[in-house]
Structures are given as C-alpha cells and as structure tokens.
Design goal:
This protein has about 80 residues and is of the alpha+beta class. The chain is built from 2 helices and 3 strands. The longest helix is centred in the C-terminal third of the chain and has 16 residues. The termini are far apart.
Amino acid sequence: MADVRKMKARVEAVARREDPSAFVGTFYDDASDRLFITLVKGSRKLSVALRGRDFDNGDAKKIDLAIKNGIERLTNTPIG
C-alpha cells in the first residue's frame, strides 16, 4: 500500500491542475484500500474512487485519466 498522504497529495494536485476552481475532498478507507475523491464545483458534486494498487507502480496515467474524466463529467452533472 502506498503512503496515504502521498496518494491524497497526488490526487489533489492533478485535480487542481485540471480545474483550479473545483473543490477536492479525499477520504481513504483502509478496509477497501480505496481513496474516495469528491469533486465539487458550484452546486455540482461527483465522487470518484481509486484503488490503492493504482498508486503502487508509480504510473500516474490511470490516476490522471480518472481525475480528468471526473472533472469532465462534473460539468455534465445535474445541479443538486
């Protein structure tokens, strides 16, 4: 398992790079070994989950793609 602080920092940096106006919240669940990410922009909210093993190999493509797709979906999410 990767260090949780590094996982959160990596995800938040990618999200801020993709959309600086979006709020990013992260929560790591030990039992499922997943990092839950909540993206909020205005009144729109979207959740994304990444597995701990996505961070183990050091390849950030999967992380970058998940966050980028999440922010793109955020613009199409209904308000509320």
